Amino acid sequence: MTPLDQRTKRFIRNLKATRIISALLAVEQLIYGLFLIQPGTPVRAQYFLSAFLISFLCLISLVISKPKETISGLGYPFFEMLPLALGMFIALNRMFANKGILLNIPTLYLAFIYGGAVFFLLDYVQSGILYGTFTIASIVMVNSHALLANNVPFRTDFVINNGIAWTVSALNYRYFRQEQKHISLIEEQNQQLRMLSEQDALTGLLNRRKIDNIISELLQNKQGGSAVSALILFDLDHFKLVNDTFGHQRGDLLLKEISALVKDQLLEDESLARWGGEEFLILTKRDGKALAESLRENIEKHVFEQVGKITASFGVSPVLPDDSEVKIFRQVDKALYRAKEMGRNRVELFRNS
Predict the structure, then answer these.
(1) Quick check: helix, strand or coil at residue 101?
(2) Is pLDDT at 105 greater than 80 in this prediction?
(3) Which of 60, 185, 200, 260 qualifies as a cystine partner to 274, CB 3.0-4.6 A?
(4) What φ, ψ does residue 97 adopt, rounded to 5°?
(5) Beta-strand pair 271-276/279-284
(6) How large is the average pLDDT for residues 31-53?
(7) pLDDT band at 323 (very low <50, low <70, confident <90, very high)
(8) What was the pLDDT predicted at 174?
């Protein structure tokens, strides 16, 4: 599964925050409207309107499913801005719908701008658009409001508070990016460690430890039958002679060439591992003897750089659901030993004697 990028992780976090906060605020606004505000007043209608709008936002957030893949498109950034934009609209409406004298910036107004900066992760452009628009709208609306306390610098307060809120939002976003960068670095290092623990350093194939684990897991899952039908073990004939004649470096290159040649003939769900030295192990669902014969012929026909031609001996063991790991390894080892004993460059299938 492909890891999610920062953009998608941020959207998922904002989606969760929208669901939780909108649900709580919708209930809170409804309770105020029903039980704490005098019936028949305009203020009560405002609380009901707020509860309806916030509930609708909550419903939208619940309909949107959590992304499982990297997201793209303009719809996602706009949705992330929607909760804070709605909160700002409610705050402005509540503040200026009151026909009495405006003594200071209401707590609701400050709660929305600072709460939004803390709970939602918006990039610099998103938060800049929101807080910039909110500042301008606040100044325009306060200029048209007749009843203002003379000793309160509302315009300056709007600019300063929204500026501080934007700074908090930007710092929150910056911290998130740094955190995700460190997480990605750790995940990358963990992936490299997993590769080192599971792959053969020379050939890049699975190593003995990893293939052992795969076989153990396959044999433990016996209810539906074994997921493989055969185990193939093959060994390069007279490989020591290659090292003695051409050097160990050339021998290493030959192992890489053999690995690539064999891997090209295998299916995606088949496993190839370096068992040790010049021995290789294959797990297959196909007819093991037929596959081994095909691989043997291709190796025999192939002309390897500098070395020329080389052959390989194959042992094949069928894998049954009730087989143990020890049993199939003993069987395939015996089959390979017989292939060598019979003159090498051949395939031998294990048979009970």
Answers:
(1) coil
(2) yes
(3) 200
(4) -75, -25
(5) antiparallel
(6) 92
(7) confident
(8) 97
The single residue listed with the structure tokens 């950034």 is 77
Least confident of 36-50, 146-160, 268-282, 289-303: 146-160
Contacts of 65 (CB under 8 A, 6+ apart): none
Buried b (16+ CB within 10 A) or exposed e, 36-67: ebeeeeeebebbbebbebbbebbeebeeeeee
45-49, 203-207, 218-222: lowest mean pLDDT where?
218-222
What does the block give as tokens for 113?
């701008």
pTM for the predicted model, two decimal places: 0.70
End-to-end CA separation in angstroms for the chain: 46
What torsion, rounded to 10 degrees, do the Cα atoms 72, 76, 80, 81 define? Answer: 110
In this predicted structure, the answer to whether residue 294 has a pLDDT above a threshold of 80 is: yes
Of 278, 279, 293, 348, which one is the catalytic site residue?
A: 278
The answer to whether residues 120 and 14 touch, using CB atoms and an 8 Å cutoff, is yes
* Distance in angstroms (rounded) separating the CA atoms of residues 84 and 290: 66
User: What is the DSSP secondary structure assignment for residue 102, as one 8-state letter?
Assistant: B
Any long-range contacts for 20-29 (C-beta under 8 Å, 24+ apart)? 21/83, 21/115, 21/119, 22/54, 22/55, 22/57, 22/58, 22/61, 22/83, 23/58, 25/50, 25/54, 26/51, 26/54, 26/55, 26/58, 29/54
Provide the residue type at 88 as one letter. Answer: M
Which three-class secondary structure state does DSSP give residue 275? strand
How do strand 312-318 and strand 279-284 relate by DSSP bridges?
A: unpaired
The structure tokens listed for 243 are 């090292």
pLDDT tens, position by position, 166-210: 999 999 999 999 999 999 899 889 888 888 888 999 999 999 999
Tokens (6 digits) for 15: 């989606």
Residue 278 known to be catalytic: yes
Confidence label for 146 from pLDDT (cuts 50, 70 and 90): low
Asked if residues 112 and 95 have their Cβ atoms less than 8 Å apart, the reply is no
